[in-house]
Protein backbone atom coordinates (compact mmCIF):
# COMPACT_ATOMS: atom_id res chain seq x y z
CA UNK A 1 0.00 0.00 0.00
CA UNK A 2 1.33 3.41 -0.99
CA UNK A 3 0.38 6.47 1.06
CA UNK A 4 1.43 10.03 0.25
CA UNK A 5 1.15 13.58 1.50
CA UNK A 6 1.24 16.60 -0.79
CA UNK A 7 0.84 20.32 -0.13
CA UNK A 8 -0.71 21.31 -3.45
CA UNK A 9 -0.64 25.09 -2.78
CA UNK A 10 -4.01 25.70 -4.46
CA UNK A 11 -5.89 22.66 -5.72
CA UNK A 12 -7.73 24.34 -8.57
CA UNK A 13 -4.84 26.34 -9.92
CA UNK A 14 -2.55 23.29 -9.81
CA UNK A 15 -5.11 20.62 -10.65
CA UNK A 16 -3.31 19.52 -13.85
CA UNK A 17 -0.14 18.92 -11.82
CA UNK A 18 -2.03 16.93 -9.17
CA UNK A 19 -3.80 14.77 -11.76
CA UNK A 20 -0.56 14.15 -13.66
CA UNK A 21 1.16 13.04 -10.48
CA UNK A 22 -1.75 10.80 -9.42
CA UNK A 23 -1.61 9.09 -12.79
CA UNK A 24 2.14 8.63 -12.56
CA UNK A 25 2.54 7.64 -8.90
CA UNK A 26 -0.72 5.73 -8.39
CA UNK A 27 -0.84 6.17 -4.59
CA UNK A 28 -3.53 4.26 -2.72
CA UNK A 29 -4.22 7.17 -0.37
CA UNK A 30 -3.19 10.82 -0.36
CA UNK A 31 -3.37 13.59 2.21
CA UNK A 32 -3.56 17.03 0.57
CA UNK A 33 -2.96 20.41 2.19
CA UNK A 34 -3.45 24.07 1.27
CA UNK A 35 -6.46 23.54 -0.95
CA UNK A 36 -7.15 27.30 -0.86
CA UNK A 37 -10.74 26.66 -1.90
CA UNK A 38 -14.11 26.55 -0.13
CA UNK A 39 -15.90 23.22 0.07
CA UNK A 40 -18.11 23.92 -2.94
CA UNK A 41 -15.10 24.55 -5.18
CA UNK A 42 -13.35 21.26 -4.50
CA UNK A 43 -12.82 19.63 -7.95
CA UNK A 44 -14.53 16.35 -7.06
CA UNK A 45 -15.50 15.43 -10.63
CA UNK A 46 -11.89 15.60 -11.82
CA UNK A 47 -10.64 13.68 -8.80
CA UNK A 48 -13.23 10.95 -9.32
CA UNK A 49 -12.42 10.77 -13.03
CA UNK A 50 -8.83 10.04 -11.99
CA UNK A 51 -10.09 7.06 -9.99
CA UNK A 52 -10.18 8.52 -6.48
CA UNK A 53 -12.82 9.09 -3.85
CA UNK A 54 -12.38 12.06 -1.54
CA UNK A 55 -13.36 13.79 1.66
CA UNK A 56 -12.31 17.39 2.19
CA UNK A 57 -12.47 20.36 4.51
CA UNK A 58 -12.03 23.55 2.55
CA UNK A 59 -11.66 27.23 3.35
CA UNK A 60 -11.88 30.24 1.05
CA UNK A 61 -8.45 31.53 -0.03
CA UNK A 62 -6.52 29.79 2.75
CA UNK A 63 -5.74 26.42 4.34
CA UNK A 64 -7.91 23.41 3.44
CA UNK A 65 -7.16 19.68 3.70
CA UNK A 66 -8.40 16.59 1.87
CA UNK A 67 -7.94 12.83 1.90
CA UNK A 68 -8.13 10.79 -1.32
CA UNK A 69 -8.43 7.01 -1.70
CA UNK A 70 -7.95 5.08 -4.92
CA UNK A 71 -11.11 3.27 -5.93
CA UNK A 72 -12.98 4.08 -2.72
CA UNK A 73 -14.32 6.94 -0.63
CA UNK A 74 -12.52 7.55 2.66
CA UNK A 75 -14.71 7.23 5.73
CA UNK A 76 -14.47 10.54 7.57
CA UNK A 77 -13.98 10.24 11.33
CA UNK A 78 -13.00 13.78 12.38
CA UNK A 79 -13.15 17.24 10.81
CA UNK A 80 -11.53 19.54 13.39
CA UNK A 81 -8.65 19.21 15.78
CA UNK A 82 -10.15 18.92 19.28
CA UNK A 83 -9.43 21.33 22.10
CA UNK A 84 -10.65 24.68 20.82
CA UNK A 85 -14.22 24.91 19.46
CA UNK A 86 -13.58 28.53 18.42
CA UNK A 87 -10.83 27.58 15.97
CA UNK A 88 -12.47 27.54 12.53
CA UNK A 89 -9.35 27.21 10.38
CA UNK A 90 -9.52 24.11 8.18
CA UNK A 91 -6.27 22.44 9.11
CA UNK A 92 -7.17 18.91 10.19
CA UNK A 93 -9.15 16.01 8.73
CA UNK A 94 -9.25 12.36 9.71
CA UNK A 95 -10.57 9.35 7.81
CA UNK A 96 -10.35 5.57 7.56
CA UNK A 97 -8.84 4.10 4.38
CA UNK A 98 -8.27 0.38 3.91
CA UNK A 99 -8.14 -0.33 7.63
CA UNK A 100 -5.83 2.61 8.42
CA UNK A 101 -6.74 5.86 10.17
CA UNK A 102 -5.21 8.81 8.29
CA UNK A 103 -4.88 12.16 10.02
CA UNK A 104 -4.24 14.89 7.45
CA UNK A 105 -2.82 18.09 8.92
CA UNK A 106 -1.64 21.52 7.89
CA UNK A 107 0.16 22.92 10.92
CA UNK A 108 0.32 26.74 11.11
CA UNK A 109 3.39 28.49 9.76
CA UNK A 110 3.76 30.75 12.81
CA UNK A 111 5.71 33.64 11.31
CA UNK A 112 6.47 36.28 12.35
CA UNK A 113 7.73 35.02 15.68
CA UNK A 114 7.13 36.21 18.30
CA UNK A 115 3.59 37.39 17.70
CA UNK A 116 -0.04 36.21 17.50
CA UNK A 117 0.65 33.79 14.64
CA UNK A 118 3.48 32.24 16.62
CA UNK A 119 1.26 31.83 19.68
CA UNK A 120 -1.44 30.24 17.52
CA UNK A 121 1.11 27.78 16.12
CA UNK A 122 2.25 26.73 19.60
CA UNK A 123 -1.34 26.34 20.78
CA UNK A 124 -2.28 24.31 17.69
CA UNK A 125 0.79 22.12 18.07
CA UNK A 126 -0.06 21.50 21.71
CA UNK A 127 -3.60 20.45 20.87
CA UNK A 128 -2.28 18.25 18.06
CA UNK A 129 0.21 16.55 20.40
CA UNK A 130 -2.55 15.80 22.90
CA UNK A 131 -4.76 14.35 20.18
CA UNK A 132 -1.83 12.31 18.87
CA UNK A 133 -1.31 10.90 22.37
CA UNK A 134 -4.98 9.91 22.52
CA UNK A 135 -4.62 8.19 19.14
CA UNK A 136 -1.65 6.21 20.42
CA UNK A 137 -3.73 4.95 23.34
CA UNK A 138 -6.22 3.36 20.95
CA UNK A 139 -3.60 0.97 19.62
CA UNK A 140 -4.98 1.49 16.10
CA UNK A 141 -2.92 1.69 12.89
CA UNK A 142 -2.71 5.47 12.55
CA UNK A 143 -0.68 7.68 10.21
CA UNK A 144 -0.46 11.43 10.80
CA UNK A 145 0.58 12.95 7.49
CA UNK A 146 0.90 16.47 6.22
CA UNK A 147 2.73 19.76 6.16
CA UNK A 148 4.01 20.17 9.72
CA UNK A 149 5.80 23.47 8.98
CA UNK A 150 8.68 22.18 11.08
CA UNK A 151 12.22 21.22 10.10
CA UNK A 152 13.04 18.67 12.80
CA UNK A 153 16.84 18.82 12.52
CA UNK A 154 19.77 20.45 10.77
CA UNK A 155 19.78 17.79 8.03
CA UNK A 156 16.28 19.00 7.14
CA UNK A 157 17.21 22.55 6.15
CA UNK A 158 19.62 24.21 3.73
CA UNK A 159 22.00 26.42 5.70
CA UNK A 160 20.33 25.99 9.10
CA UNK A 161 22.21 28.93 10.59
CA UNK A 162 19.97 31.25 8.55
CA UNK A 163 16.78 29.85 10.12
CA UNK A 164 17.55 30.12 13.82
CA UNK A 165 14.79 32.61 14.62
CA UNK A 166 12.23 31.39 12.07
CA UNK A 167 8.97 29.85 13.32
CA UNK A 168 9.71 26.72 11.26
CA UNK A 169 12.97 26.04 13.08
CA UNK A 170 12.77 27.66 16.49
CA UNK A 171 13.68 25.38 19.42
CA UNK A 172 10.10 25.30 20.72
CA UNK A 173 8.63 23.68 17.59
CA UNK A 174 11.57 21.35 17.10
CA UNK A 175 11.12 20.21 20.71
CA UNK A 176 7.41 19.71 20.13
CA UNK A 177 8.13 17.55 17.09
CA UNK A 178 10.77 15.60 19.00
CA UNK A 179 8.15 15.03 21.69
CA UNK A 180 5.97 13.23 19.16
CA UNK A 181 8.84 10.93 18.25
CA UNK A 182 9.68 10.32 21.90
CA UNK A 183 6.03 9.41 22.53
CA UNK A 184 6.27 6.57 20.03
CA UNK A 185 5.57 7.98 16.58
CA UNK A 186 7.95 6.98 13.77
CA UNK A 187 9.12 9.62 11.29
CA UNK A 188 8.94 7.34 8.24
CA UNK A 189 11.29 9.21 5.93
CA UNK A 190 13.95 9.85 8.56
CA UNK A 191 13.63 6.30 9.94
CA UNK A 192 14.59 4.78 6.59
CA UNK A 193 17.06 7.52 5.60
CA UNK A 194 18.68 8.52 8.90
CA UNK A 195 21.72 10.36 7.52
CA UNK A 196 20.52 11.81 4.22
CA UNK A 197 19.86 15.46 3.59
CA UNK A 198 16.28 15.35 2.28
CA UNK A 199 14.00 18.22 1.32
CA UNK A 200 10.29 18.40 0.46
CA UNK A 201 9.93 22.16 -0.15
CA UNK A 202 11.80 24.64 -2.32
CA UNK A 203 10.85 28.34 -2.39
CA UNK A 204 9.91 29.94 -5.70
CA UNK A 205 12.49 32.69 -5.08
CA UNK A 206 16.24 32.77 -5.75
CA UNK A 207 16.23 29.58 -7.86
CA UNK A 208 15.90 27.54 -4.67
CA UNK A 209 14.90 24.36 -6.52
CA UNK A 210 17.73 24.65 -9.01
CA UNK A 211 20.24 25.17 -6.18
CA UNK A 212 18.59 22.46 -4.05
CA UNK A 213 18.19 25.01 -1.26
CA UNK A 214 15.25 23.28 0.36
CA UNK A 215 13.49 22.39 3.59
CA UNK A 216 11.92 19.17 4.89
CA UNK A 217 8.48 20.26 6.09
CA UNK A 218 6.23 17.36 5.06
CA UNK A 219 6.18 14.28 7.27
CA UNK A 220 4.39 10.98 7.75
CA UNK A 221 4.36 9.80 11.37
CA UNK A 222 3.42 6.16 12.01
CA UNK A 223 1.88 4.72 15.17
CA UNK A 224 3.52 1.60 16.66
CA UNK A 225 0.65 -0.53 15.38
CA UNK A 226 1.62 0.16 11.78
CA UNK A 227 5.31 1.17 11.86
CA UNK A 228 6.56 -2.44 11.42
CA UNK A 229 4.84 -2.52 8.03
CA UNK A 230 6.97 0.35 6.68
CA UNK A 231 9.03 -0.75 3.69
CA UNK A 232 10.09 2.28 1.61
CA UNK A 233 9.80 6.06 1.75
CA UNK A 234 10.74 8.84 -0.61
CA UNK A 235 10.10 12.25 -2.14
CA UNK A 236 8.90 12.75 -5.73
CA UNK A 237 11.11 15.81 -5.98
CA UNK A 238 10.94 15.89 -9.78
CA UNK A 239 7.30 17.00 -9.49
CA UNK A 240 8.53 20.29 -8.00
CA UNK A 241 10.23 20.95 -11.34
CA UNK A 242 7.05 20.62 -13.39
CA UNK A 243 5.47 23.72 -14.91
CA UNK A 244 3.16 25.57 -12.50
CA UNK A 245 3.89 23.09 -9.72
CA UNK A 246 3.51 23.61 -5.99
CA UNK A 247 6.55 24.71 -4.01
CA UNK A 248 6.22 21.37 -2.17
CA UNK A 249 6.87 17.90 -3.59
CA UNK A 250 4.83 14.77 -2.78
CA UNK A 251 6.22 12.57 -0.01
CA UNK A 252 5.27 8.89 0.11
CA UNK A 253 5.69 5.60 1.90
CA UNK A 254 4.90 2.00 1.05
CA UNK A 255 3.56 -0.50 3.59
CA UNK A 256 3.60 -4.28 3.61
CA UNK A 257 0.26 -6.06 3.79
CA UNK A 258 -0.97 -6.64 7.36
Automatic annotation (TrEMBL):
Which CDD domains would you find in this protein's record?
Answer: ExoIII-like_AP-endo (cd09086)
Transmembrane spans: none
Residues annotated as binding Mg(2+)? 7, 34, 147, 149, 247-248
Active site positions? 106, 147, 248
Q: Which keywords does this chain's UniProt record carry?
A: Hydrolase, Magnesium, Manganese, Metal-binding
Question: Which InterPro entries does the protein's record reference?
Answer: AP_endonuc_1, Endo/exonu/phosph_ase_sf, Endo/exonuclease/phosphatase, ExoIII-like
Gene3D superfamilies hit by this protein: Endonuclease/exonuclease/phosphatase (3.60.10.10)
GO annotation, biological process = DNA repair
Q: Which residues form a coiled coil?
A: none
Cofactor(s) listed in the protein's UniProt record: Mg(2+); Mn(2+)
Q: Cite the PANTHER family for this sequence.
A: EXODEOXYRIBONUCLEASE III (PTHR43250:SF1)
Q: Which family does it belong to?
A: Belongs to the DNA repair enzymes AP/ExoA family.
Name of the protein: Exodeoxyribonuclease-3
Organism, by scientific name, is Devosia crocina
**Taxonomic placement:** Bacteria, Pseudomonadati, Pseudomonadota, Alphaproteobacteria, Hyphomicrobiales
Amino acid sequence: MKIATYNVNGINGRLPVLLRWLGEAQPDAVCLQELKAPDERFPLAAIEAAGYGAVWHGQKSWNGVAILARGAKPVETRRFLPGNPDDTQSRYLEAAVNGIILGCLYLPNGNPAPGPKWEYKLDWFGRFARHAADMLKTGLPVILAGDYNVMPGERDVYKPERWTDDALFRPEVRAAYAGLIDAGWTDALRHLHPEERIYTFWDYLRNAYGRDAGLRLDHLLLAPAIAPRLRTAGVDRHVRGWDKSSDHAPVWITLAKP
